[in-house]
Amino acid sequence: MRRLLVPVIALVLLLPGAVPATADPAPVGGGADQRALRGYAVDTWRSMVAMVDPGTGLPADNIGGDLAAATRSTYTSPTNIGGYLWSTVVARDLRLISTREATRRAAATLATLARLRQHTDSGMFYNWYDPRSGDVLTVWPEDGNPVTPFLSSVDNGWLAAGLLVARSALPELRAEVDAVLAPMDFGFFYNPDAKGAGLPGLIRGGFWDTAPPGCSVVGNYRDRGPDVWYTCNHYDITVTEPRIASYLGIAFGQIPPEHYFATWRTLPDTCDWSWAEQKPVGFHTSHLGVPVFEGAYRYQGIQFVPSWGGDMFEALMPDLFVPEDRWGPRSWGRNHPATVAGQIAHGMTDARYGYWGFSPASDPFGGYREWGVDAMGMDTLGYASDVERANYDAGFGECRPAGPQPSYGDGVVTPHAVFLALRYAPREAVRNLARLRADFDVYGSGGFYDAVAVRSGTVARRYLALDQGMIMGALGNELADDDVRKAFVTPQFERAIRPLLAMETFNVPARQDLPIGQDSADAPATTREGR
Length: 531
Description:
Number of helices: 15
Strand order of the largest sheet: 5-8-10-9
Protein name: Glucoamylase family protein
Strand content: 5-15%
Number of strands: 23
Domain Glycoamylase-like: 298-478
Keywords: Signal
Domain DUF3131: 40-182
Radius of gyration: 22 Å
Distance between the termini: 53 Å
Signal peptide: 1-23
């Protein structure tokens, strides 16, 4: 019976406003839109430059809104370094800097990377370095607490992504890139027995090479060098950012391709899993001999495969590099527009904020928080879109009754999430960004500040290297003919990954009524205080 679900849904009529999810995305509008986006690129690049230590070529994790060197954080990560590398390529491709300057900048960063302390047997980089010296951090600079040096699978994935982009776009630096990239072995994170029963394995969140406090598992999946202390968790969700590490490990021949189908599209639909956000709808199939439950969620009339927290970063950051929509037209090509549509529907119709775009970022009231659309994530509590953490509870069929309709409070919009949506809702994204800039003090000399609470008007006036890097990546693809994707994808990568994405059909309708292509500016909104 469940196998009939997809063909039946595919017969739904294309209603006014409905979008064929496999169609090529509409381009951004006319010259004014292009000029606005280019202006954002100019200013965003200014923030990236301000974050970089001139002596090491390493970016800080974040910087204050005034871009003063004294406000640079004194810690950085492999993700931040990778983001700076691909942003440098985008700046060159948009002619914000010359090829000579791009090469000089990337060369300085690569020279420091070559001397940073690494884990010898995996070739991986530690998660936190001092950008001023390149030293591995053992004390957290903001509070003096001890840090046990950690090696993250996903953070090393983003560094490798930046290296691949630099390798292709700046061929004169290929030898320097290869010296850093070649030793990186993602198989060191891969636990072949994670699921048992003869199923393919999963990748761990990472490992420590000295005993950490708290939960860990001693092992060595490559049987190379001393044992390490692995995280107790595995990454077991499909729609989440660690898939970049999975893609790279498969493409490099370090992880078997069957691993791609070992992660959950959704958790199962039985009462044993009734703690999850909602009961999925789906069907059972198999790929490469691996059983797969093709589950999906529904929210605001939209059907999609959820991420863990319901945020844009998990769903769309890997798509900046891997042409998932084109290689997987029946999977990612349907899911990405549906994800964006759900975020728009949440901000404009359900929560009635008048703005949309929710993803982990700074907290306007201090610190950092996971923002998202709770209803679109598998986590029961989810990543809330508002400061008050309004909780959406759809129930789980007969296993758990639905909760009351949430009342949303001070919603927090994160501009990088809007830029991630450019490919799938370009006009809506441009309008949304323009309204944010017009209605709030959310824009500085380094581009959009990191987050804004739209009902109180409170702004997180700082810039994060990760979030600015995502903005630069999205703008490079939009304004420079998919330059990030083209630089990232090698023939080897395409041969390994494209067939995997092409063979799957997500339980997402080929055509559904999505709030894309409509004027979201006309949707009802709740006026913020003081406006």
